[in-house]
Amino acid sequence: MNRLEIVVLLAAFTLMAFTVEILRRRRLSESYALLWLSVGIGTLILGLARPVVDKVSAALGIAYGTSLIFGVGLLFLLGVCINLSIHVSKLEARVEVLAEEITLLRGPVETDRTRTGQGDAGVNEIDSSVDSLTDSSKDVGHDPDAMA
Amino acid sequence: MSIARVAYSQDVSLSARTSTPPASRLVKSHPKGTVLPTLLVIIPALNEEQTVSSVVRDVFANIHADVVVIDDGSHDRTAAVAAEAGAMVLRHPFNLGVGAALRTGFRFAHDQGYAMAVQVDADGQHEVMDVKVLVSLVESGAADLAVGSRFGSDYEVSGMRRASMRFLSWRVSRYLATPIHDTTSGFRAFSNVAITRFARSYPSAYLSDTVEALLLAGDWGLSVVEVPVHMHERQGGEPSANFLRSVYHLTRLVLVIALHRVRRPELTIVESADESKSAS
Asked: Fewest C-beta atoms under 10 Å: which of B58, B184, B271, B274?
């Protein structure tokens, strides 16, 4: 085992250990953990099977095996980026729908004017606690300041 | 807010309001004067307009229970059909998966103060009379989580599916120290303790909702009991059977099981009902 192989081995194991750790802390979903774990395994195989890499690159007409790994790695990362873009787009769309749902659940903003039809106290106040405000609005109705 | 509340009390199918106190449980099918059911039948449904109605009516005809259908973002008339059959209907804004639908069901059951809950499929493959068997186990205190096993009848699976079910069964049985043959069964009854626990944390990923939930039950010291139940042919819908997909799901499940003991618990959900109670 030469020095390069040891470095590759360490890198792959570090990647896999890190993946498992953030999975353990529930900061990563299982599907992405599987992706990065398989990248780790792939790195192991490519790093330790140099003759196979050289043969495949020769068959593809690539002079250096390293170039093949760079090329494949680049394409793979491109694929991951596109996948993440798709995922983020979906999440964006969902957040919009959720915000709309909450807007509809909140319902129209109520003011003292819309509720009692008199007085303009607290017109711009957003109704946060319906029950308490409904009671106090009766009091406001008898308040001379509110009547003015 | 008050407008929304009025609308909710008129039509329970509109939306779930967690701020609704348990006293005002709103059920169409039980006239005033009768004893309110302590059992909630939770039916997760996705595009099941063909079958969900008969399942709901079947439950009402045979069991003293309330029924809530969790419409998980259906594109057909599932929600309307279920509501017409007399069920309460809660709708997800988009498809979230069976696990999330169940969690919604557990949260609803918890907020509304049900003592027991039963999970039944909307496709009609579960025999409604077996609900009584599962519920009696929970009611007597014999189980916090009663699992209906499809292997009780002539349920046959073959090939890789059989091998993976055997593996899951072996692993889960060992973890719980009690034999569970059908770890992926979606026919289950839950005690009040189980409802409370699962309302806070329930795995939403496909297959995790059944298998990982069993492991969680073990962690929490809930008693799990399996009983054989009858199975019907699916009245509608298609079984999911993509090979690569099932390989992926199984691999993911192996990862989940392998790491389960050392993993941090899933993020717990704030209990909104208790909060609103203390606030008012």
From this structure: B274
Whether A23 and A64 map to the same domain: the answer is: yes
Q: What was the ipTM of the complex prediction?
A: 0.73
One DSSP character per residue, B5-53 reads HHHHHH-TTS---TTS-GGG---SSS-TTSPPPSEEEEEEESS-TTTHH
User: Closest to A26 (Cβ–Cβ): which among B94, B248, B264?
Assistant: B264
**List of domains in chain B:** 2-279 (3.90.550.10)
The amino acid present at B77, given as its one-letter code, is: R
CA-to-CA distance for B182 and B33, rounded, in angstroms?
Answer: 40
- Print the domain residue range for A122: 112-147
Q: What pTM, to 2 d.p., does this model score? A: 0.78
> Which residues have CB under 8 Å from B44's CB, separation 6+?
B69, B70, B72, B98, B101, B102, B105, B119, B121, B122
Which residue did the predictor score with more confidence, A67 or B136? Answer: B136
Is A30:A23 a contact under the CB 8 Å cutoff?
Answer: yes
Q: Per the domain annotation, does A10 fall within a domain? A: yes
Q: Is there a domain that residue A100 lies in?
A: no
A107 at interface of B, judged by CB pairs closer than 8 A: yes
Which chain B positions have a beta carbon within 8 Å of A20's beta carbon?
259
| A23 and A83 housed in the same domain | yes
Rounded CA-CA distance B44/B119 in Å is 8
The answer on pLDDT for B151 being more than 60 is yes
